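Q: What does the assembled structure look like for these inputs?
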Amino acid sequence: MKQVASTSSDFSRLRVLTIVPERCSGCRTCEIVCSIHNYKVSNPKKARIRLLSLYPHPVIKMPIVCRQCKVPKCMDSCPSGAIYIEKGLVRIDETKCVGCHACVVSCPFGAIYVHADMIAPFKCELCGGDPQCVKACPMNAILYVPEHTLGQSKRLIETLKYAHLKEMEYFEHGVEKKLSYAEIETGGLREKEKKAKSEAES
Amino acid sequence: MTDGGMIKGGYLGNILHIGLTEKKFWLEEVSEDFALKYIGGRGFGAKIVMDNLHEGMDPLGPENILVIAPGVLSGLYVPAAGKTSFVSISPLTGIYADSNMGGMFGVEIRQAGYDALVIHGRAPEFSYIWIDDDQVQIRDASKYRGKMSTSTERELKEDLQDEEIKVATIGPAGENLVRFACVNSEWSRNAGRTGMGAILGSKNIKAIAVRGTKDLPTYDLDKLVKISDRAYETLNGHPMMKFWQEEGLMSVIDYANTLGIIPTRNFSDAHFEYADRINGEVMTSRYKIGDSACYSCPMACGNICLVKSGKYAGTVTEGPEYESAAMLGSNVGINDFSAVLRGNYLCDELGMDTISSGSLVATVIEGYERGLLSLEDVDGIALSWGDDSSIMMLLEKIANREGIGDVLAEGAKGVIEKFPHLEPLISHVKGMDQSAYDGRVGVTMALAYSTSDIGAHHARAWTIAKELEVGANWTLEEKIDLVIYHQTVRPLFDMLGVCRLPWIELGFDENTYAEFYTAATGVEVTLDDLLEKSKNIYNLTRAINMRMGVTRTDDHPPERTFNDPIKTGPHAGEHMDRNLFEQLLEIYYQRRGWDKDGRPSEEQLHECGVL
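A:
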């Protein structure tokens, strides 16, 4: 059989991190593995992906990480030209960085982080093409996908929604009837009828 | 800790003492002997509490101390390493007490550079403690007075202008010194039992906010990562894992009901006919809106639930887990899961232990139903099983100490003092209300409750499943050894600052924790070495309890266990035989190496550092 080259390092298609907040449990395993991989220390405060957790209203747990913008605001705002793009990856050149934090406050997603031990801010650089957080996430809430697939889940929902609206026509005892897809799930009955029926049965 | 010693990592090396009375802070160096002997977490706490013991002291007085100690693995890349122990002398029982919470609070304390916090004295004004790495401040908290736990946390985060800080708070119940008040962090991580919230309240402390940014020292990080990768792989590949993430501890409702050990109507029964209305399936299909996990835990046993309709619509809470669902559900006769959620929400926000609350509320309902309490005694509320409105009212009354609530807020002992005729109805050991596993089934659970060092708490030795599943034909000695093994291995998790659930629920190999300890600290140990130390801690806490006046007669299960047979379910008719129990206790003491009155031997006391 012919071998297909597929190791992530030489895979040329650009891939990005994307988050499914609904799946996140807030365990912060992504933070600890990130700090270990990038700085060889156990310190969630040095992680380049960081969880923000809000409760009780609204309840949301969301890891925040760089999206590798094509026209990065951080790069625009950097006064010393320390931020550059390399093979689709937005990187910070620590030797040029002056530590003014302009990039940190200009990032619309807040995905650039600061720690007192370091002069330069830091951000996700995708662990050289093999993001550790993706492997470590027990809830599968961090995905590493080719960028053209972003938004597909929304498109899928949109399509299904349309399918639900669609009606089909059929004849019963010579009478033309209409049934929408949404009603098929309830056995052809509308919610109210179904409830009345189940109440009558019980 | 000096260089060149045995310990080469893991520990931060400092314990932060906070003297509230005179606003003094000082650091105590953790000596190598101390660290090796007591490991951390609960172990550190027990020793520090022992050293500070005054006979006859008031747990709510300024002379009592509160130790907050994460473990040596807390915050590292280790599965479920987010446990923090709160150790003190309990206002509920008057003896040694510890309670632990998951989440991130302990990790933050360690990142601030401390192996433990020790809180002394009493603040002259209502305050909160703000620990910002090396800076410690006592600040005015008058604007947070009377606020619910989560709102206090929210406002503190806004006032201190940092979303990443970790905050532990008490609710109104803690401020009002309800003797089973809890400490709450991150919405729903609670150090629930033994009244740690009341201790903070007695010290005039509303909250502790921590910001820590330091690296956690690890001796051999590569090795730790290697062991952990393997551990996560094993856990994530476990066939039960998905189910755990889905239902978490709520699956135990069905399990306990099938086995016939679920607390029902104040432990009068052990089988609940409506269990299928408050079980995990109901939760996942109708209420659950998300998962929640403690630090670094793949199991995510927390369930975020929302009530979408009915009179409690809009209630959003994390949990309940089994204990809360059973104590605020079947034990008070509630068969509507939205009411269980409401009870759980109220207890969390008001800052009370769900187990003690559920148990005491059930006692009052039973007392009233049987005519032992008059309508006047219960403030004119016509109580009945499953009447959720009056139960919610009672919970709020407890937290605010109004009317009957003021009596219940004093805990089991206080209720008995006020209404002595209720004594046979209250299921408690040493003043601590029994957890949600019936002690009449099998023999090990009654023994575990009786000999637990903090009172009737299931987490000390949860032996009932094993006894019923595989140990039916075991000899008494084997069963007692099971209790002792649990009482030995479980403290170890608290000492290391990790959660026990991967071990007890997914069968994760406990030997791995010795490997973790070695990788983190550089000290070569085996599981047996660690268990030896854990055994010492049990002797130590026993010694503390003896000093506080515990005798053999206190090592007995609730009266109900002996004289009120289970009514329905697979174990109908069963109860514990008094003579059998005495025999069990005798053998238990023997196997522990204690004397006939349950006193540890002189050698053991030397070993654990009491003498």
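The CA atoms of residues 459 and 490 of chain B lie 8 Å apart.
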